[in-house]
Write a structure and sequence with these properties.
By secondary structure, the protein is an alpha+beta fold. The chain has 11 helices and 35 strands. Strands 4, 5, 6, 7, 8 and 9 form a 6-stranded antiparallel sheet that branches. One of its GO terms (biological process) is response to other organism.
């Protein structure tokens, strides 16, 4: 049996299961987890005092964002835990304490556990939860002897036990508690039962269930009291169970139809653009209150409510109804008063900030929203999109520009303009130039110079059937990147770290001159050197840092570099698409040594960017005694599994790249 005592051990526990990113979404049989902070160090305590201790984590493809994880969870004072699936935020695979996590499934909601409780995926395929004090069995998946081969948390938040053929033996989606996520279904006979309160996981008396002809809400009693229903008028002839699926912004109800896009009925949900989930909530903690579903939108943490109104034929107490009506009227009056006050405050604040904008020195050109809408032909030519918005091609006074429309700017106008002023004042031949800005009401748009050949990844990953870049062009691009970083680190008025150096954020003009984009305000300079080393190796080898199309031993580029360096086989790392690269192999190998210098695990041994520029210009040599225990800049752990000092980088600037 493997006893998991940390993330490094968890990688061993995963054994032959493939790891595609810096997460750990799978586990093998005969693995034991102990609910103890020292035994499960990948844990986070949130501002409200709640805590998660993750045992499985599936990170998003993006650098930062919401992720699904499974593990132990508690609310303050954290003396009782549940084994649950929850949504957390991660940065490069590391848990990131920026928002309270949300539980979407729970195994033992009525029987919480204490410290040192155990979860075991047994050798015969049963997932077992036990109390530490007496070994009492608290919960089991009941899958012993059913050919289970492993456990996985999927990209849509489903905890799955799978067999040799990757078939599902057991899944949490078949046992919903009080929440649904997109793509999850409630089959006929299943129920969604609200918790007693946000901190009390025991089941309340309010539940929603699926019957043959639609959705029903009940108060648990003898007999159950009907509270809500949504009936689909259709003749049930097929013997398939009625299904309700949370998808496409609604509850799709399938009574007769079995076509995914053609339900027999729909319950519309409030529109939301980000990741959502639905939770059953009690309006008040008693059985005569309204029950409703709440729609959660992440990462904005906004919530919308979909009320399941009381069934009109029920005999509700007159006093309760009267109190509810008076409370609603009072709340409405309060909302109107507050809205008027907020509107006036906003009007005065916007007027003040308009004046602030005009007097701030060094600001780039200001454009109206209408002008940018016209210059982009109503935002019709999309060049790409990133974590904070989409980028569109435009034309201003016959000059092509890239217009970025920010969609999730959380900063106030003053903070946004202050950052624009700082970024706009930075000018360097190897940095993408910020031309202008638009700040009107909630609209935030940035206008950048247009880079005709797009981002570097298009030219080194061979996704567009392009000819390989020759060695001299790659050398020039590498020098341009180094000079841009050197300016940000050491020469500009305010020291800035890029923090997200990657081919997608390196843009090329007609002549393949490189410019950096997506640089924000921060001071963790050392991290840039290691990421520069990774990009340098990607340019040399013509592949991604993490490439799951490669054989298992070659998926991680930096691991492969370490192996080839130790065996004096660096020539194997050269991009074989280019004969010119192969013909310059001695120079290419020297460039690899510069990359290895930047990748030193000890940050004190990495060169500054000015030293890197000197090496590239021939004024300095690479250090000879290099340690092959490289820092993996795409992970929060080093290649050898030693925890890095850079556990969670700060939130990226919203002034990100134009393409």
């Amino acid at each position: 049996m493997v006893v998991v005592t940390g993330q490094a051990t968890l990688q061993v526990a995963a054994g032959t299961l493939p790891r595609q990113r810096s997460d750990y979404p799978m586990a093998n049989l005969s693995t034991l987890w102990v609910n103890n902070r020292n035994r499960l160090p990948d844990s986070i305590t949130y501002d409200d005092g709640s805590m998660v201790r993750s045992i499985l984590l599936l990170s998003p493809q993006t650098f930062y964002g919401p992720s699904f994880a499974a593990g132990f969870f508690c609310t303050p004072p954290c003396r009782e835990f549940i084994f649950a699936v929850f949504i957390v935020f991660t940065s490069s695979g590391a848990l990131f304490p920026v928002a309270v996590n949300e539980v979407i499934w729970c195994a033992n909601r009525g029987s919480p556990l204490g410290e040192d409780a155990t979860l075991e995926l047994t050798g015969d395929g049963d997932l077992v939860l036990r109390e530490k004090a007496n070994g009492r069995l608290v919960w089991s998946s009941g899958t012993s002897g059913r050919s289970v081969q492993g456990m996985e948390i999927t990209e849509n938040g489903n905890l799955v036990l799978f067999d040799q053929r990757n078939g599902t033996v057991w899944q949490s989606f078949d046992h919903p508690t009080d929440a649904l996520v997109p793509g999850q279904s409630l089959l006929q006979g299943m129920i969604l039962k609200a918790n007693t309160s946000p901190t009390n996981w025991t089941e309340s008396k309010i539940y929603i269930t699926i019957l043959q002809d639609g959705v029903y809400g009940y108060v648990e009693s003898t007999p159950p009291q009907l509270y809500y229903n949504y009936v689909v008028s259709t003749n049930k002839s097929k013997r398939v169970p009625t299904t309700v699926t949370f998808t496409n912004g609604c509850f799709s109800i399938f009574v007769q139809s079995t076509q995914p896009g053609n339900p027999d009925g729909r319950i519309a949900l409030p529109e939301a653009k980000s990741i959502q989930y639905i939770r059953g909530i009690l309006l008040e903690n008693n059985t005569t209150s309204n029950c409703y579903l709440q729609l959660y939108c992440l990462p904005q943490s906004a919530t919308y409510s979909l009320f399941f109104c009381p069934y009109t034929k029920q005999k509700l107490q007159t006093k309760t109804i009267l109190v509810s009506i008076l409370a609603a009227i009072g709340a409405l009056i309060l909302v109107v008063v507050v809205a008027i006050y907020v509107q006036k405050r906003r009007k005065y604040r916007e007027r003040d900030e308009e004046l602030d904008f005009d007097i701030m020195p060094g600001m780039p050109t200001r454009f109206s929203f209408q002008k940018l809408r016209k210059s982009t032909e109503d935002f019709s030519k999309k060049l790409g999109e990133g974590g904070f918005g989409s980028v569109y091609e435009g034309k201003i006074s016959e000059e092509k520009v890239a217009v970025k429309r920010l969609e999730s700017a959380r900063q106030g106008k003053k903070e946004f303009l202050a950052e624009v002023e700082t970024i706009g004042s930075i000018e360097h031949i190897n940095l993408v130039r910020l031309i202008g800005v638009c700040v009107e009401k909630s609209n935030r748009l940035l206008v950048y110079e247009y880079m005709s050949r797009g981002s570097l990844d298009r030219w080194i990953y061979y996704h567009h059937n392009n000819a390989p870049l020759d060695w001299s062009t790659r050398c020039r691009i590498i020098l341009d990147i180094a000079k841009g970083l050197c300016y940000l680190h050491e020469e500009c008025r305010r020291k800035i770290a890029h923090l997200d150096i990657k081919p997608q954020n390196i843009l090329l003009d007609d002549n393949f001159n490189a410019k950096l984009a997506d640089f924000g305000l921060s001071k963790l300079i050392d991290r840039d050197q290691s990421k520069f080393g990774v990009v340098l190796m990607e340019i040399i080898s013509g592949r991604k840092n993490i490439d799951i199309s490669q054989p298992e031993e070659a998926v991680q580029l930096i691991n492969l570099l370490r192996e080839k360096a130790q065996n004096s086989q660096l020539i194997d790392m050269i991009d074989k698409h280019s004969n010119d690269m192969v013909s310059h192999q001695e120079e290419v190998i020297q460039m690899m040594k510069l990359a290895m210098w930047c990748l030193q695990n000890d940050s004190d041994r990495r060169p500054s960017m000015s030293m890197v520029v000197k090496v590239l210009e021939g004024a300095m040599r690479v250090e000879n005694c290099l340690d092959y225990s490289f820092f993996n800049a795409n992970s929060v752990i080093s290649v050898q599994g030693i925890p890095s000092t850079y556990s969670a980088p700060p939130r990226a600037s919203i002034l990100s790249s134009p393409r």
